[in-house]
Amino acid sequence: MSEPAPLPVNHHADHPGFSGVTGTLFGLVFLLTGGVTARLAADLTGVGAADHVVDIGCGPGTAARVAAGRGASVTGVDPSAEMLRLARRVNRDAAVTFAQGSAEALPVPGASATAVWALATVHHWRDVDAGLTEIRRVLAPGGRLLAVERQSPPDATGIASHGWTRDQAETFADLCRSHGMSDVHVADRHAGRRAVWAVSATIRS
Ligand SMILES: C[S@@+](CC[C@H](N)C(=O)[O-])C[C@H]1O[C@@H](n2cnc3c(N)ncnc32)[C@H](O)[C@@H]1O
Q1: Residue 18 CA: which ligand 1 atom is closest?
Q2: Total structural domains in the chain?
Q3: Is residue 9 part of a domain?
Q4: From first to last of its 205 residues, what are the pLDDT tens digits of the chain?
Q5: Which of 17, 59, 68, 197 could cysteine-pair with 30, CB 3.0–4.6 Å?
Q6: Ligand 1 geometric centre to CA of 41 (Å)
Q7: In a domain, 12, yes or no
């Protein structure tokens, strides 16, 4: 019997749930659950006052807020108007710019970011190659990328399938390398009690 085809890294690209009332409800759930991953991202990238962080797929802005709390200037980007409305409302007191856009079309000038985060979002991107091209464009030399996804078994269904198998994490790492990124690593981490894959990379030049 032949092996099943490997899952693409954006196997939930057609997920319809981030607009309308459903989008707001999901946003409220992400607000309650996103704190540990946000702190993990800030720790792994060592974000501080010298940084401009672009948080792609920022959702309700939890990680953007954490980065701002560590002194970074931050741009949170999301295609969902509902997510951005929630993000602006709950982060009124945080120094974060929220902008509508997508991984495939980042509303950020070239070479302006020192760190790019993509937390629980790559599995939803329509076009991962276009997203990585954009990340290369916006990251300044020395800039770093961090993508985090929950660990999912290959046969996961429902919410549990909104993550990556080890193969998917390795495939994304290979895509980063093919886009000229350096120091690409896949790490097995924990965000609170949740096991996650953390894929990191840097731009050398
Ligand atoms: C599971 S939520 C994660 C939100 C946030 N990063 C967090 O950890 O709480 C996925 C987010 O990715 C966004 N998204 C979907 N497609 C996207 C794309 N092509 N580019 C950027 N963000 C996208 C969704 O609107 C949603 O806010």
Answers
A1: 25
A2: 1
A3: no
A4: 566 677 899 999 988 878 899 999 999 999 999 999 999 999 999 999 999 999 999 999 999 999 999 999 999 999 999 999 999 999 999 899 999 999 999 999 999 999 999 999 999 999 999 999 999 999 999 999 999 999 999 889 998 999 999 999 999 999 999 999 999 999 999 999 999 999 999 999 7
A5: 59
A6: 15
A7: no
The CA distance from 155 to 170, in Å, is: 18
- What's the 178 CA to ligand 1 centre distance in angstroms? 23
What range defines the domain where residue 79 resides?
20-202
Residue 54: CATH number of its domain: 3.40.50.150
The dihedral region occupied by 166, where left means phi > 0, alpha psi between -120 and 50, and beta the remainder, is alpha
Q: What is the pTM of this model?
A: 0.96
- For residue 10, tell me if it sits in a domain: no
CA distances to 18, 80, 129, 130, 189 from 108, rounded to whole Å, are: 22, 17, 18, 15, 29
Q: How far is the CA of 173 from the centre of ligand 1 (A)?
A: 19
